[in-house]
Amino acid sequence: MNSPFSFALTLSDNQRWVHPSVPSPAKRFLDIVGGLVGLAITLLLAVPIAIAMQLDSPGPVLYGQIRCGLNGKKFRIWKFRSMIVNAEQQKHLVENKAQGHIFKNDNDPRITRVGAFLRRTSLDEFPQFWNVLTGDMSLVGTRPPTPDEVANYNQKHCRRLLVKPGITGEWQVRGRSNVSDFERIVEMDLDYQRRWSVGYDINLILRTVFVVLARKGAY
Question: What is the domain range of residue 144?
């Protein structure tokens, strides 16, 4: 492996294994249709969210962060900003309550009042439909990690990068923010890869809608 961002599982000297979800036309079609619908909803939500955000914590409406996608390829993920403007510079002041190569705090002081609402309702995630349309993400996949997280991965952890990251996935319907153990997230991501089918993606999308409407496990 040349770097944490360049790897593949080799089946033979001349063939590299590709997860069947990656070249699937049906999955890509689902992503395009869902991405267009989701982006249309995002545009409708953007104005009221922007107004509320400026009244609460003036600054950019969107927040972009570098994440790692399929095979570790870096891309910029987009969200509605849920934290104060200089949140990254203050990250070292916040205690990490998660276990392993992720960062979580259920009472992060950098989150704004509007941001807390956006997170509870998952509205902050809606700009990611643009990432789905551009092909960097899928509607359903694995949790998109940051480069500093991937830099500490072992070979097992790297396997979660063999599919596109998703707006939703196993971790969303099985706990969302309450899942604070990185190894458990890895197991859920690998379980998704084993169970994947277009039908299973649709099942996870429907279950995600229920979880979001019930506001279970989000902060």
Answer: 29-214
